[in-house]
Amino acid sequence: MDRATRKELKSDKFALEVQHGVEYVTDHKKLVTQWGGIAAAVVLIVLAVVFYMRYQRGVRLEALQDAMRVQNSQVGPPNNEYTLFYPSQADKDKAVQKTWSDLAAKYSGSEVGVMAEYYLAGDAADKGNTPEAEKRFKAVVESGDTDYASLAKISLAQIYASEGKLPDARNMIQSIIDHPTAMVSKEAATIALAHVLAPSDPAAARKLLEPLRGSDRPAVSRAALTALSELQK
User: Fold this and answer.
1) Please, how many CA atoms are within 13 Å of residue 212, restricted to the half-sphere of its CB?
2) Binning pLDDT at 50, 70 and 90, where does residue 170 land?
3) How buried is residue 12: exposed, middle or buried, by Cβ count under 10 Å (0-12/13-18/19+)?
4) Is the pLDDT of residue 59 over 80?
5) Is residue 159 over pLDDT 80?
6) Helices (DSSP H) in 28-88: which residue ranges?
7) Nearest to 121 by CA among 162, 171, 172, 158
8) Mapping DSSP to helix (H, G, I), strand (E, B) and coil, where does residue 107 land?
9) In what helix (H) or strand (E) does residue 75 lie, and over which residues does it extend?
10) Most distant CA atoms of the chain, gap in Å
11) CB 64 within 8 A of CB 89
């Protein structure tokens, strides 16, 4: 098999993987509103889709593919030639951290750099390092890319809410409701705001969710109904 054919197969496999990621996120929008590692892992796939579409060829795609290969690596003795393996979870975690840190530094200002910054922010949040997470999410917001900034705003709002800064959290999400993006729709931002308000003002959260329960978009309707059922609990 020649090199060109192998490269085409590699790209096709990558496209299939990110397509599955989009289908997953469509049915699990609630995960995208969480600011921890789950959000970083899931949203990363969404960002990869856009990046793949815009940079189907070139060095950045190769760098992204390499990073995804490290991200999707396994722990334990190697059992096939297609998957990357590390001897321990600690070794894998170190490699993943280095990979995304290198991407963030090398491609700062580009989409892949912003993507790496977002992953590192979510990873920091997942490890309980809130100051680091907040710093990196702010860097994404200030990157100038409105699509990725909208995702980071959702995450920052969750952090602000956890710190008792409810007005800041509300204003952050309201800015997306007023100016939705390809990454975060008006409906998704509204549901995220309802989640933020629910602990302190369930009536306001319900008021936001009720109009969405009958949405003609199944994913939006399901997410709204799920959020409403959580309010009842």
Assistant:
1) 26
2) very high
3) exposed
4) no
5) yes
6) 29-32, 37-54, 59-71
7) 158
8) coil
9) strand 74-75
10) 63
11) no
CA atoms in the 13 A half-sphere facing the CB of 62:
5
Q: Which two tokens stand for residue 4?
A: 């060109």
Contact, 40 vs 129, CB < 8 A? no
| Ramachandran region, residue 87 (left: φ > 0; alpha: ψ -120 to 50; beta: rest) | alpha
Place of tokens 């990046």: 51
Tokens of 112: 């892949």
Higher pLDDT, 4 or 218: 218
45 to 28, 131, 228: CA distances (angstroms): 13, 25, 27
Separation between Cα atoms, residue 144 and residue 149, nearest integer Å: 7
**Long-range contact pairs involving 69-73 (C-beta distance under 8 Å, separation at least 24):** 70/95, 70/96, 70/99, 71/41, 71/44, 71/96, 71/99
DSSP assignment, residue 217? Answer: S
pLDDT 10s digits, 214-233: 888 888 888 888 889 988 87
Which structure tokens are listed for 57? 């060829």
Instruction: Give the global pTM.
Output: 0.72
Which domains, from first to last, does the chain contain?
3-232 (1.25.40.10)
Q: H helices within the chain, ranges in order?
A: 3-27, 29-32, 37-54, 59-71, 89-106, 111-126, 130-141, 146-162, 166-178, 186-197, 202-209, 218-232
Local structure of residue 86 (DSSP, 8 states):
E
- The tokens describing 39, both together, are 């959000």
Report how far apart, in Å, the C-alpha atoms of 68 and of each of 13, 30, 48, 213 are. Answer: 12, 23, 9, 36
